[in-house]
Write a structure and sequence with these properties.
By secondary structure, this protein is mainly alpha-helical. It has three helices and no strands.
């Protein structure tokens, strides 16, 4: 039994395929970015520090003065600021591109 690909009915660049693509929900994206920032903050502050301390590459963290929570919160805030800046720059660039395309369409018409 031989499988045959039918490439005649499949057009990747068709306008119909992009018109029916669902738009991502903003709150879902923000939630995923929050989870990613929290995960990386935890891994950087707690997991990496504990692994380095158990491998005796750094001194163990004293329980009296544990800076890891502050490190995690600082990393979380920094990541959220970085994600927000990336989103802002992407939005500005996208708007400029759309305006440029609209000017090109107006020039043709």
């Amino acid at each position: 039994m031989q499988l045959r690909e039918d490439t005649d009915n499949f057009d990747v660049d068709s306008d119909e395929a992009t018109a029916h693509a669902p738009k991502p929900n903003t709150w879902t994206v923000v939630g995923l970015l929050l989870v990613a920032a929290a995960t990386f903050s935890y891994l950087g502050a707690y997991a990496v520090t504990s692994a380095l301390a158990s491998a005796e590459l750094i001194r163990p963290i004293s329980h009296e003065h544990d800076p890891r929570l502050r490190w995690a919160l600082t990393c979380f805030v920094g990541l959220m600021i970085a994600f927000s800046l990336i989103a802002l720059v992407s939005k500005i660039i996208g708007r400029r591109q759309v305006r440029r395309i609209e000017r090109m369409n107006d020039a043709e018409g």
